[in-house]
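Narrative summary of target 7.
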Amino acid sequence: MNSKKYIIKPSIKQQFLLLWPMLLRYSFLIGVYVHYLGWNFNTAPFLGGLAFTFVLDFGPALALNIEYSIKTWGLVIEIDEELKTISYTWHNKKRVFSFDDISALEYYTSFGRGTGVYSFENYRYYKITFKDQTQIPITSLMMNKIQERVEPLLGMKAEKNPTFLPFV
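Modeled conformation, tokenized:
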């Protein structure tokens, strides 16, 4: 019998996929600025715009990326659809749970989801809580399009928790 197993872990590729749109957007904006105003970055509009975008867009995305990386570094999750088990290895400790052991599945996302305006809108995570109160995060640094994949893999619906910045 061939079991359907899915390995979920943080990757540099996934970090790049989340950061790429932001880097591309700001490279374009700086290019437009240089084209029209030259290489003079000491102007008040540039410095004001830079401070504004850092506080409201770039900074939160960078903070979420760093926090997700720290919270999940070294975490490996294996979901076996046939055996209906979820196991995780973290800090040289391995635990295996049945899907029946899951007491809660929560989904955290930002309010700006889908607008294309905020660089941090694609940062989101699921928190799986088991009956023994063990919790496992699955972040957007671990899996692309987690909003479309986690719930079908586990065969359950998550409680949605929109927030301004979805810190783990």
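The chain has one domain: 5-163.
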